[in-house]
Amino acid sequence: MKSVISVDIPQNPYDVVIAQDAIDHVGAWLSNHEQPLVKPGQKLLVVSNPVIFRHYGDRLVQSLESVGYQVSTCILPAGERYKTLRSIQKIHDAAYDAKLERKSAMVALGGGVIGDMTGFAAATWLRGIGVIQVPTSLLAMVDASIGGKTGVNHPQGKNLIGAFHQPKLVVIDPQVLKTLPPREFRAGMAEVIKYGVIWDAELFAALEQTDRLDQYRYVEGELLQMILTRSCQAKAEVVAQDEKESGLRAILNYGHTIGHAVESATGYRVVNHGEAVAIGMVAAGKLATALNLWSRDDDQRQYQLIEKTKLPTAIPSQAGAEALIALLQGDKKVEDGRVRFILPKAIADVFITDQVSNQDIRPVLAAMTTP
C-alpha cells in the first residue's frame, strides 16, 4: 500500500509519502524528479538519536548513498529534555564539519523531537537549507513532520524558540512502528484522536469501532494505513489553508494549550507530549461541557476513546491548578494577555476563543488533578 498526500502550500508545496519499506527508497524519491528535490552528489546530514539510528540508520544512509549523495551523521541524545539550543549548536557544528552548502540538506530520522530540532537547525543554517523528514514515531508521522513548525524549548515554556520551515519531502514507513514502545504508540494515538475531534468524524467513528488502540499489534494493516492517511490529510488540508497559523491552523492546537502547561509544570519527565495532549483534550472537553458549548454525550465519547487508548485522563499531582494557570499566561498563543483556547462544539467541529477566564478554568483543573 502506498499513499501520496500533497501539502499544497503556495510557495512550498511538497508530498507526504506513506509506504511499506519507505526508508529504503528515500534516496530514489529525493533524486527521481525532473527537478530533483536535492541534486545527487550534494551533501546530506542525517540527524537522529542512538536508538533510532541503530534500528534504521544504515538502511537510510544506504538509500541515500546508493544514488550518489554524500552523507554525514549527527547523533543526539533521545528525549524532550534535550530539545534545547545546545542541541541545535551540535547540529550546526556537524553541518560545519560536513561543509554543508546552500544546496545541501538535513534529513531528520526520528520522532518529533529530532524532527523539530533538525527543521530548526536547517532553517537557521546558511539562512535556510532544505530538510527532509523521515518520522519514526506515530506522533511525528501524523503531526510533527508535516506543516513546517520547527523549534526547541525555552526553560519557561515549550517550543517558544522556533521558525516555520517547510520540508522538501516527508517519508513515512508504517513498518518502523513495530519497534516503537507501546507508550510512544499511545502518545501518537492522542494526536490521531485530535484529528477526529477537530476535523474528521469518519476517522473518529472508525477509532470508536476498534476494540484495541493501545498497541501497534492491535492496529495493523488497513486500519493503520487509514489512520496515517486520514490524519496526514487532515493536517495537510489545514496547513495548506493557513501556513503561518494566522487563523484556522490554530485548531491543530486542540488539547495542546493545557497539555503544554502540564508538560512544563512536570519538567518534561512525568508525561510525554501525547499523554499531555490527551489530558489537555479531556480538560478542553470538560471546559466546553461546563460552558454548555457541546453535549455531555460527545464529551463522553471523547473521554471513552482516550480511555480506551489507555492514555492518561487526570492531571499529575506534580502540576497544581494554580501553577498551570500561571504557565498558561506564558503560552506562545497568548494575545493581548488573553489565552486562546480551542474548544469543541461537536465531533469534527471546534472553534478558537479567548473568552475563557481563570474562573472557568480553575474548577476543571482542580477536579482533574490527582491527589
Q: How would you characterize the overall build of this protein?
A:
With 371 residues, the protein is α/β, with parallel strands linked by helices. The chain folds into 2 domains: 2-179, Rossmann fold; 182-368, Dehydroquinate synthase-like - alpha domain (Dehydroquinate synthase-like, alpha domain, Up-down Bundle). 43% of the residues lie in helices and 18% in strands. The chain is built from 13 helices and 11 strands. The chain has helices at residues 26-31, 50-65, 85-97, 112-124, 138-144, 182-198, 201-208, 221-241, 256-265, 273-290, 296-308, 321-328, 358-368, and strands at 2-7, 14-19, 43-48, 70-75, 105-110, 130-135, 149-154, 157-164, 169-172, 341-346, 349-353. Helix 3 (85-97) crosses helix 4 (112-124) and helix 6 runs parallel beside helix 10. The longest helix has 21 residues, at 221-241. The chain is globular, with a radius of gyration of 20 Å. The relative contact order is 0.11.
SSE order, one letter for each helix or strand:
EEHEHEHEHEHEEEHHHHHHHEEH
Rg is 20 Å
By DSSP (H or I, 4+ residues per run), the number of helices equals 13
Name the poorly predicted regions: none
Task: Report the major sheet.
Answer: 7 strands, mixed
CATH topology of the largest domain: Dehydroquinate synthase-like, alpha domain
Strand numbers in spatial order across the main sheet: 1-2-9-6-5-3-4
Distance between the termini: 47 Å
- CATH architectural group of the largest domain: Up-down Bundle
* Overall residue-averaged pLDDT value: 94
Helix and strand composition category: alpha/beta
Shape: globular
CATH class of the largest domain: Mainly Alpha
CATH superfamily of the largest domain: Dehydroquinate synthase-like - alpha domain
β-sheet strand percentage? 15-25%
| Number of structurally distinct domains | 2
What is the tally of beta strands? 11
How helical, in percent, are the residues?
A: 40-55%
Cofactor: Co(2+); Zn(2+); NAD(+)
Family: Belongs to the sugar phosphate cyclases superfamily. Dehydroquinate synthase family.
Pathway: Metabolic intermediate biosynthesis; chorismate biosynthesis; chorismate from D-erythrose 4-phosphate and phosphoenolpyruvate: step 2/7
Subcellular location: Cytoplasm
